[in-house]
Specification:
The complex is a heterodimer of chains A (143) and B (121).
Chain A: E1 2-6, H1 12-24, E2 28-31, H2 35-40, H3 50-55, H4 58-67, E3 71-74, H5 88-99, E4 103-106, H6 119-123, E5 128-129, H7 137-140
Parallel strand pairs in A: 1-2, 1-3, 3-4, 4-5
Chain B: H1 2-10, H2 24-31, H3 33-52, E1 56-59, H4 73-84, E2 88-91, H5 102-106, E3 111-112
Parallel strand pairs in B: 1-2, 2-3
Helix pairs in contact in B: 2-3, 3-4
Classes of the chains: A alpha/beta (143), B mainly alpha (121).
Protein name (chain A): Nucleoside 2-deoxyribosyltransferase
Organism (chain A): Candidatus Staskawiczbacteria bacterium RIFOXYB1_FULL_37_44
Organism (chain B): Candidatus Staskawiczbacteria bacterium RIFOXYB1_FULL_37_44
């Protein structure tokens, strides 16, 4: 089983580490092709650089990788003071996962519906919430 | 949106629209939140099917909540499917930097109609 790891590029290091954790559990895993660059050159803010995004056709490249996975794991670490933060790009990846009928895992619950406009959009896809423990994936996904 | 549908039909296009053709707020007012949550997955899946069967997607992004060219998270996810399926993407109105999803959509290969549906070819 192959898992696509998604999340804000602010967490590029966590994404890279999580791939290793998933591989240690026996899964295949992959992530956005510019993750290493975002980690190694954070000062470039590549994820906010439109020229970079257009030059590398990053959205299409991500989708091509995601398409070949069986599940998505969204690393929705707290960001900007919001627990379970889910950004626009992650919503795109979740929407595609739902369309592709991939199993959806969230590392943490999304922010409450009172504060997150996207709560219904996320929860109606029936994500499996890991409450911070990625080892729980093994209970729901065969290696 | 209903008027836009009729206009496009009059121009000879086959048109699919979201069902039900009311806002989520209106649906919940009419049928209750529980019914809405029960039906939401089938609304989404049906809409995905309509995108699959279309050649192009029109994002009907009118001003809302003080944001020009507003569209919400649900539309963003539909947009991702349209992009993935290489559909032509039209925005009825321009997206400004105030828009919550500005950075994600500005780089998409899309056509902005500036309110003029007749520009769809």
């Amino acid at each position: 089983m192959k898992i696509f790891i998604a999340g804000s590029m602010s967490f590029a290091l966590e994404i890279i580490k999580t791939r290793k954790d998933l591989e240690d559990m026996g899964f295949e895993a992959d992530y956005a092709p510019d993750t290493h660059d975002c980690f190694e050159k954070p000062h470039l803010k590549l994820n906010e650089d439109m020229d970079h995004c257009e030059r590398t056709d990053i959205m299409k490249s991500c989708m091509d990788i995601q398409e070949n996975c069986d599940a998505i794991l969204l690393l929705n670490h707290p960001k900007d003071g919001t627990h379970g933060y889910i950004g626009s790009h992650s919503l795109i990846e979740l929407g595609l996962a739902y369309y592709l009928k991939q199993k959806i895992f969230l590392l943490y619950p999304p922010p409450p519906k009172e504060t997150a406009r996207y709560w219904v959009e996320v929860m109606h896809m029936k994500p499996i919430i890991l409450n911070g423990d990625i080892s729980k994936i093994k209970e729901r996904l065969k290696v | 949106m209903g008027e836009a549908m009729e206009f496009l039909k009059s121009k000879g296009f086959e048109v699919f629209a979201p069902e039900p053709l009311v806002t989520e707020e209106q649906y919940q007012n009419d049928y209750g939140r529980e019914k809405f949550l029960e039906m939401k997955p089938s609304f989404t899946k049906n809409h995905f099917r309509k995108i699959e069967n279309s050649d192009a997607v029109l994002i009907f992004n009118k001003e809302k909540k003080g944001i020009t060219g507003y569209f919400g998270s649900n539309t963003l996810m539909e947009l991702s499917v349209a992009f993935f399926l290489n559909k032509k993407i039209y925005f009825l109105n321009p997206i400004t930097e105030k828009h919550p999803h500005y950075e994600e959509v500005i780089g998409l290969d899309s056509i902005t109609l500036n309110g003029d549906l007749s520009k769809i070819d």
